[in-house]
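Suppose a colleague, Dr. K., hands you the sequence of a protein chain of 364 amino acids and asks what its three-dimensional shape might be. Before reaching for any lab equipment, you can write down a predicted structure in token form. Begin with the sequence itself:
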Amino acid sequence: MDFSTLGPHVVHPYIFKGSSQKPFLAPRGVHVGNNRLFVSDTGQNRVFIWHELPTGLHQEPDIVLGQQNVGDSGRNAGGTVSSKSLHYPSGIWSDGTCLVVADAWNHRVLIWHRLPTENGQAADVVLGQPDFVSNQPNVKGIGNDPTSQSLNWPYGVFSDGKKLWIADTGNRRILFYDTIPKVNYAPANKVLGKPNFSTRDYENYEPIWPYALKISENGVLAVADTQFYRTLLWHSWEEAFGTKADVIIGQPNFDSAGQNQFGLFPDAHTLNWTYDVCFYKKGLLVNDTGNSRILYFKSIPEENNTKADTVIGKRDFKTGSENKDTIVGTDSSLYWPFSICVQKEKLIVADTGNHRLLVAALTL
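The predicted structure, expressed as tokens, is then:
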């Protein structure tokens, strides 16, 4: 990789490709909790756990979930859905003890209340399905209305260690649980983005395709709203239920939905297929996936369409995915990064289009 494409605020970068036996294939989820690294190796239907952040190109995982062995990669482990299987895992969260995985194409979320210690270890709890052997969208299949217990393509999860939020992407909503459930098929306590649990239609001021969400230490809620090429911000997550977002990043208003605001090239205030967001210091990192870059706002934006202060992954704000750095191949720079997380000054990026992680220190 040509690390100069990352920009001047990234130092000591290196690439990590996972297991040397069978490296990553389109990893979409990355998370660091209690110094452990968690990766959803989405294209190979498995989740990896490293007890310490790897420092080289390859390192064998300490634990693999969804498969019995590191070299396996079949959908639902090559069989039918179970408490041990995964199909297109995406969002992931852990505090180093509890582990939550969005098992997206099984239309469920799996919870391990104790960090797994064995390969292929069964989950303790399933949400979105009545049991571990069911996996239909909204339980009864496509076309059925959602409920407080059902899920449809849940791609994102977030917790503060006590409460749980799920980006129920296919149902165009976010579910909130006031405690991390300990029983299967637990109903959510509240829904964000819909007037009730059974509504399927949407308005432009609601999250249209919420893929990921994060909440800051001060209670600010950020939602990567992919389909309308924007990130939505609420100043207080507790006041977000039934209310419009306070600020829109990437669009001037709720009815605007253009890729890069219909421009030929990106800019400091535009987005294209944004899939993640992450609070950093007093500001915000926005994963601008379709432009293969990350935007940094030094402070939380207070107005719609605010310009970013810094770009990571491209040489300037007006350079997008299709540029001189990707004419021959994409591996010289970031390519369709789906997920980001931070550990102190360190940035970890799921560089999904290049089937790898990027790890680097930030000087922002």
